[in-house]
Design brief:
Keywords: ATP-binding, Membrane, Nucleotide-binding, Transmembrane, Transmembrane helix, Transport
GO molecular function: ATP binding; ATP hydrolysis activity; ATPase-coupled transmembrane transporter activity
Domain ABC transporter: 428-646
Helix content: 40-55%
CATH superfamily of the largest domain: ABC transporter type 1, transmembrane domain
CATH architecture of the largest domain: Up-down Bundle
Shape: elongated
Radius of gyration: 33 Å
Strand order of the largest sheet: 1-6-2-3-4-5
Strand content: 15-25%
Number of helices: 21
Protein name: ATP-binding cassette domain-containing protein
Transmembrane segments: 116-143, 155-176, 225-246, 252-271, 363-387
Length: 647
């Protein structure tokens, strides 16, 4: 059992105290789990192992342990599962068995704590680059041997032999750096997945309108920190190794060169940081341009119906801003490149000055001139690289901070704790509830009870607050005062985050498919049975051959479909037997009355006990509702009509 548990924890990717784990002995399951759970030390998630029956789990993880004749590791593969990563089994065959599964809840981190976690993820394998630093001396030794020995030989064979020997040394450096680089990439990928998982877990609870931009900035800048950090280690090591070699030859005279390098470093730092604002403006202009392009591309088909000149004028403004920023950066980079070239020339001048006076003491110093020039060049290049990489590191850190802080501050709701779990939503009760937009009351003193098995039509004028009302019910809007009780006992903000994934189906006019296959889009919404999925897809696409490629491989965005087909498919994905609250916010648009009746019949068959909320402006549809909720002038009233039976 412990072997399987070890493999499971390894596959989960969670941070774990493996040293303490080796002292834990085999026990009964509950005792073993109680001893193992405190060993999880993941900086981003609170992690714990739990035990239960697979059939009782509303939220089935993609990997878990299951006990049949013995314990097995299980991994989901499309609509099947793999036992110990080799034996395929159907979900129905596992339903009644005991399982051990991992539960992760995001930790609440301030932006500073998140930055510290990100820095702690920097791959320590890069410390081995210090071992590669002495290889920087190879060109100097090679040049010195040629200058003092080989140039006087009658044959070039010795030169060729030494070249081969030094090439072998160089290959050693190459393979060391290559191994470190591959390990760096592997570890960075593992840590990047953890960060993306953390941000993904928080995303549904963020109310920022520009999360796409924020996520893109976090992704690019955290990679910039890790990659530049590795290069910085190598450059600093090369600087010290090369300078020590220089000092071994020049003695105390090398101190004058050290002073020059420090002065050169200060000048380069000044040159870089005096243009710091230009880099920030360039990054801001890039983000603004990206926002413009997203807006334009998102409305691509509509552009032909807009006035071209007027439409292009704002885009032109963003384009000119990025062009101006590009021009500034081009000037900055040109000046930087020329300064680097001139500083390299001055480094040679400084070396010659030192050697000029050193030669008066010992003329033999000229015998190592070429070696000293090579070392001096490496030191000069290292100083330039340290300043440049350090600057890029600080720029990346600044932009990362600017993206992380507002994102984490925007997180609302019960995201960071394990809340109350519900198997089913029987009733929702609003008591003296004021629903706000910002700090302004939109709906006041709302008293409303919604019961299972009932259908409610929600109507009202544009901007009256219909959508805000239903969003508040499903915790998409937490700006309210008063009480919203689920099952007459539990406050909405105390519910576990999985309650809404397991029990609530929500569809509005802005709902989109997730990138991936048809099966994936059904699966993430809780529709797991392959035969059911095929039946529903065939009802939407009666003339398409439903092969494996179409169902499991083709991206859903690449499947041609009409607006009505798109809406019907989304409805079938949303309406599932396990949903006890269904919210359709203008989701029946693009459907005929006949199709709407078919959808209602499907709901009555599939989720007859669900609370059904239909937001619509369609008077014909409203008149068919047994219960009508009117939202008007800041008030919410419930009117009962004759029950309409759907059969």
């Amino acid at each position: 059992m412990k072997d399987k548990l070890t493999y499971y924890i390894q596959q989960s990717g969670s941070e774990f105290d493996w040293h303490s784990y080796q002292y834990i002995k085999e026990h009964a399951i509950d005792k073993l789990l109680s001893e193992v759970n405190p060993l999880f030390n993941d900086p981003l998630f609170s992690v714990s192992l739990h035990r239960g029956q697979l059939a009782d789990l509303r939220h089935v993880p993609d990997i878990f342990l299951i006990k049949t004749d013995e314990w097995h590791f299980v991994r989901r593969a499309d609509d099947n599962y793999l036992l110990d990563d080799k034996t395929p089994v159907k979900a129905a065959e596992l339903a009644q068995h005991e399982v051990i599964y991992l539960e992760e809840v995001p930790k609440k981190l301030a932006s500073r704590d998140f930055m510290l976690v990100l820095l702690s993820f920097f791959p320590r394998v890069n410390a081995l680059l210090l071992l590669a630093a002495p290889f920087a001396l190879i060109p100097a030794f090679y040049a010195n041997l040629f200058n003092t020995r080989m140039i006087y030989n009658d044959s070039a064979y010795t030169l060729v032999f030494l070249t081969v020997c030094f090439s072998v040394l160089w290959s050693g450096e190459f393979f060391l750096k290559k191994w470190v680089k591959f390990q760096h990439i592997r570890q960075v990928d593992q840590k990047a997945i953890k960060i993306e998982k953390y941000l993904f877990a928080l995303m549904p609870f963020s109310r920022l309108p520009d999360n796409l931009i924020k996520m893109r900035q976090i992704e690019s800048n955290r990679r910039g920190i890790w990659d530049n950090g590795a290069s910085l280690i190598a450059d600093i090591a090369i600087f010290f190794i090369a300078y020590l070699a220089l000092a071994a030859v020049l003695g105390l005279a090398s101190v004058y060169l050290l002073v020059f390098y420090l002065v050169m470093g200060v000048i380069l730092v000044w040159a870089r940081y005096r243009n710091y604002k230009a880099y920030l403006e360039h990054e801001a202009a890039q983000q603004e341009m990206l926002t413009e392009r997203l807006s334009i591309c998102g409305n691509g088909q509509q552009l032909r119906f807009y006035d071209f000149e007027s439409s292009f004028s704002q885009f032109e403004g963003a384009s000119k801003a990025i062009f101006l920023a590009d021009k500034k950066i081009s000037h900055v980079n040109f000046n930087w490149d020329e300064l680097v070239r001139y500083s390299s020339f001055l480094a040679s001048f400084s070396l010659f000055i030192v050697m000029f006076y050193q030669a008066k003491i010992d003329v033999a110093i000229f015998s190592v001139l070429i070696a000293l020039l090579v070392l001096n060049g490496r030191i000069s290049a290292a100083v330039t690289a340290i300043v440049s990489k350090g600057f890029q590191l600080l720029i990346a850190r600044y932009h990362l901070q600017q993206s992380v802080e507002p994102f984490l501050d925007s997180i609302t709701g019960n995201c960071y704790t394990r809340g109350v779990s519900l198997d089913e939503i029987d009733a929702i009760e609003l008591k003296n509830t004021n629903i706000l937009v910002g700090e302004t009351p939109l709906l006041q003193n709302v008293n409303l009870t919604l019961r299972k098995g009932e259908t409610y039509g929600i109507t009202g004028g544009i901007g009256a607050g219909k959508s805000t009302l239903v969003k508040t019910l499903v915790s998409l809007n937490d700006a309210y005062q008063g009480s919203i009780l689920f099952n007459r006992l539990y406050e909405a903000n105390n519910l576990d985050r999985h309650v809404f994934a397991d029990c609530v189906g929500y569809l509005d006019m802005n709902s989109q498919f997730i990138r991936g296959s048809l099966f994936h889009n059904f699966y993430i919404r809780g529709v797991r049975d392959k035969d059911t999925i095929i039946r529903l897809v065939r009802s939407v696409f009666p003339n398409i051959n439903l092969d494996y490629e179409f169902l499991y491989k083709t991206d859903i965005h690449h499947i041609p479909m009409s607006s009505g087909q798109r809406r019907k498919l989304q409805l079938y994905m949303t309406i599932t037997p396990n949903k006890s609250l269904l919210v359709l916010d203008e989701a029946l648009t693009n459907l005929s009355l006949e199709e709407i009746m078919a959808v209602r019949k499907y709901i009555a068959m599939t989720a007859p006990r669900a609370i059904l909320l239909i937001v619509t402006h369609d008077r014909t549809l409203i008149n068919m509702m047994p219960n009508i909720i009117k939202v008007d002038q800041g008030t919410v009233t419930l009117a009962k009509t004759a029950t309409v039976k759907i059969s």
